[in-house]
Amino acid sequence: MIAIPQILGCDVAGVVKEADANSKFKVGDRVVGDTAQILKDPWGTYAELCSCKEELLTRIPEGVSFEQAAAMPIAGLTAWQALAPSMPLAGKRVLVHGGAGGIGHFAVQIAKTQGAYVATTCSGRNEEFVTQVLGADLAIDYTKGEKLADVAGEPYDLVVDLVGAEPESWKVLKRSGRMAAVSWDKMVKGKSGFALVATILRRMLRLKMASALRLCPKYDAIQQEFEPDKGLSQLLQLAAEGKVRVHIDRVMGLEQIPEAHEVLEKGGVRGKIVITTSAAS
């Protein structure tokens, strides 16, 4: 269970202040990672100092700022792990639902770096952003209310669902394709507590069973792994090489955390919001 009260936050980027004598890191190293603490203890990363197991950290490469690095861990790991079972992606068709958001803007760019054709759903105001900035081949404006099958074009090898649009996406997925489910937001709207959890579990189990029996394309419910080599290290290298852009919607201070969450809950954030400390600045 999640311990309440707690300091929120799992993503962190900063400078090592203390390390064990036999650690692979030394004082002064620039590091980044996901502490994976939310289910383990109440001490999150919305703080000037935090502790983390060294196996969950990696060095920040030259050319990547603290703010850029801090935007990557959970979003980047999730994006990579959603795509990874379908890699290599060269020549494949990939549909990303929610391509302008934190996870989505990484997923779109990673797929493009591997040579995939990438379509993504977004609001009309983000069409230029996902195509001109992120490099998507097709932007689908979900606010128009059109049926996905009518506007998505040819069937896809992979659908990455970051918004809970899985039910309508099967029609655009190849029989040999793969559904990577990350979010169930649309399907659980209005639900909370046990009802929310039960709805997700029923959906996951039913589709996993159908997939195992080959009654539908392959179905994966993405459960994040937090070790840097599961996608963070790879994404950091792509960013250092200029192949992936980390889009930061805004940078806010520790004292603005409530406001930052309000902004996120309203929706419409492009990329990530980064929290910085006075020490970092």
Note down, in words, how this protein is organized:
With 281 residues, the protein is an alpha/beta fold. The protein has two domains: 11-72 and 227-276, Medium-chain alcohol dehydrogenases, catalytic domain (Quinone Oxidoreductase, Chain A, domain 1, Alpha-Beta Complex), CATH 3.90.180; 74-221, Rossmann fold. Helix content is 29%, strand content 21%. The protein has nine helices and eleven strands. The protein has helices spanning 66-70, 73-83, 102-113, 127-133, 148-151, 166-169, 193-212, 232-240, 257-266, and strands at 11-15, 30-34, 57-59, 93-97, 117-122, 138-141, 156-161, 173-181, 218-221, 248-253, 272-276. The strands form three sheets. The protein has a six-stranded parallel β-sheet. The protein has a three-stranded antiparallel β-sheet with strand order 1-2-3. Strand 8 (173-181), helix 7 and strand 9 form a beta-alpha-beta unit. Helix 2 crosses helix 3. The longest helix is centred in the last third of the chain and has 20 residues, at 193-212. The radius of gyration is 19 Å and the shape is globular. GO terms for molecular function: oxidoreductase activity; zinc ion binding. Residues 1-275 form the Enoyl reductase (ER) domain.
Present the secondary structure layout:
Blueprint: E1 11-15, E2 30-34, E3 57-59, H1 66-70, H2 73-83, E4 93-97, H3 102-113, E5 117-122, H4 127-133, E6 138-141, H5 148-151, E7 156-161, H6 166-169, E8 173-181, H7 193-212, E9 218-221, H8 232-240, E10 248-253, H9 257-266, E11 272-276
Parallel strand pairs: 4-5, 4-7, 5-6, 7-8, 8-9, 10-11
Antiparallel strand pairs: 1-2, 2-3
Helix pairs in contact: 2-3
GO molecular function: oxidoreductase activity; zinc ion binding
Protein name: Enoyl reductase (ER) domain-containing protein
InterPro entries: ADH-like_N (IPR013154), ER (IPR020843), GroES-like_sf (IPR011032), NAD(P)-bd_dom_sf (IPR036291), Quin_OxRdtase/zeta-crystal_CS (IPR002364), YIM1/Zinc_Alcohol_DH_Fams (IPR050700)
